[in-house]
Design a protein that fits this description.
It is found in: Golgi apparatus membrane. There is one protein chain. The protein has two domains: about 35 residues; about 350 residues, Spore Coat Polysaccharide Biosynthesis Protein SpsA, Chain A (Alpha-Beta Complex), CATH 3.90.550.10. Helices cover about 30% and strands about 15% of the residues. It contains eleven helices and 13 strands. Helix 3 runs parallel beside helix 4 and helix 6 runs parallel beside helix 11. The longest helix is centred in the N-terminal third of the chain and has 36 residues. The radius of gyration is 24 Å and the shape is globular. The structure holds 2-acetamido-2-deoxy-beta-D-glucopyranose.
Length: about 425
């Protein structure tokens, strides 16, 4: 072929290429426009008014298809819009306060202990406490009603399986149970990798955790603009008086002492350990007691909605360790002090591997010793950081304990990730 011909051919090819690109672009634009106006979308592209742009791409037609709500769940969603309480006592919060989110189910005897411990935390009046409830329980509410030591905002998970006695996310008539064969039994459901069908009690924790994360970072009026860190605790975590001040120090030291740390923790990742008690900070794998991170980290987590929602594992924390964190591309370390500022005291597990998940009554007195050293900040600026590398525990490659095989749970979970970003959220607190 003569050289000039080749050029001509190339030119033509290039023009054809441009044409194809243009037409495709136009097509995609129109498609997006149509999808958007239908508010059902294959591709959800959103940008927050603040911070990083977050592009969440849901692969196959995951549209926002939230379950039909009932009277109770609608009234709770409305209650979520109520202003925080104790605004008269604590009208202004310092700009750099660390919001505290406490997520609870139904263990009032535990909740009393947590709230009592929080009341003794130095600096607690400087922050907002958000209490997120999985289910509706009067006894839990009355404990929260008694709080006078800081601003409190109560929110209720309106899609809690506990609120739906005879429809999804609870059990619907016709749902498969245990190891039913859907084709033989003509029942609804997809078994998990071990052949078991969904159980609302088991899936509720992971759903609640994910709904709560999306709600506090992207939905709730009181917190969705929060630029600092948020601390997450559970109803069976005892918090020491120095927890808040220690956390402020850790958050300040994090960029200086451990730039590769994603979070700060109030306790070691090994829940049985109370710390080394040495004169050093520790960087180790993310723990699940008193973990604290900022919006940048949340955006990273949120981008992994598919990993979180589609992995066949009913524990939120194991899901994070086995799929979400490994997908970040570098080890996810958390910074902490050498002495716990929070401990897990619950005997009745709500998660963790294959624990029994039936009702658990635990009426023993919780006596956690609080020493003088736990009442004052006990982290020193000048300490170096000990990095724990290659720690044992759940990690990439773990297949999951199951319990999360039903497509309806996957879809609901993905819907939580997009409900505030699509601006179509019946249960959100988006109103201003
Ligand atoms: C949030 O924390 C991460 C991890 O520690 C850090 O890289 C990032 O700069 C922080 N973002 C802001 C806005 O401070």
């Amino acid at each position: 072929m003569a050289p000039y011909k080749k050029t001509q051919f190339k030119d033509a090819a290039f023009r054809r290429y441009l044409y194809v690109v243009f037409v495709t672009g136009l097509g995609v634009f129109l498609l997006l426009f149509l999808l958007k106006s239908n508010s059902t979308s294959d591709v959800v592209t959103t940008s927050q008014s603040h911070d990083a742009v977050d592009d969440v791409v849901f692969s196959k037609g995951e549209k926002l298809n939230l379950p039909k709500q009932n009277e109770l769940s609608i009234s709770l969603a409305q209650r979520n819009q109520l202003p925080a309480r104790n605004l008269d006592l604590y009208p202004n919060l310092p700009k750099d306060h660390i919001t505290i989110v406490l997520y609870v189910h139904n263990r009032p005897q535990y909740l009393k202990v947590v709230i009592q411990s929080l009341s003794q935390v130095v600096g607690i009046g400087e922050t907002l406490l958000v209490v997120s409830h999985d289910g509706y329980f009067e006894e839990m509410n009355s404990i929260i009603d008694g709080i006078k030591f800081c601003q409190v905002k109560q929110i209720f998970f309106p899609y809690s399986p506990h609120l739906f006695p005879n429809s999804f996310p609870g059990v619907s008539p016709g749902d498969c149970k245990e190891k039913d064969d859907p084709t033989k039994m003509h029942c609804t459901g997809n078994p998990d990798q071990y052949g078991n069908h969904r159980s609302p009690k088991i899936v509720s924790l992971k759903h609640h955790w994910w709904w709560m994360m999306n709600t506090v970072w992207d939905g709730l009026k009181e917190t969705r603009q929060h630029q600092g860190h948020i601390l997450f605790i559970e109803e069976d975590h005892f918090i020491f008086p120095n927890a808040y001040r220690n956390l402020q120090i850790l958050v300040e030291l994090k960029p200086l002492k451990c730039p590769h740390c994603y979070a700060a923790n109030l306790a070691p990742s090994n829940v049985k350990s109370r710390g080394e008690n040495w004169d050093m900070l520790a960087a180790e794998r993310m723990g699940n007691i008193g973990y604290t991170f900022n919006r940048t980290v949340w955006r990273n987590i949120h981008k992994k909605a598919n990993q979180f929602c589609l992995f066949d594992e009913y524990n939120w924390d194991i899901t994070m360790w086995a799929t979400v964190y490994p997908s970040f591309g570098s080890p996810v370390y958390s910074l902490r002090g050498p002495r716990s500022s929070a401990v897990h005291f619950g005997k009745c597990g709500l998660h963790q591997g294959q624990d029994e998940r039936g009702a658990c009554i635990d009426n023993r007195v919780v006596d956690i010793e609080v020493g003088e050293i736990d009442k004052v900040p006990n982290i020193k600026q000048e300490w170096s950081v000990h990095v724990y590398k290659h720690q044992a525990g759940y990690q990439a490659g773990f297949k999951g304990w199951g319990g999360w095989g039903d497509k309806r749970d996957h879809q609901l979970c993905l819907a939580f990730a997009s409900m505030y970003l699509l601006g179509d959220s019946p249960s959100s607190s988006k109103s201003d």
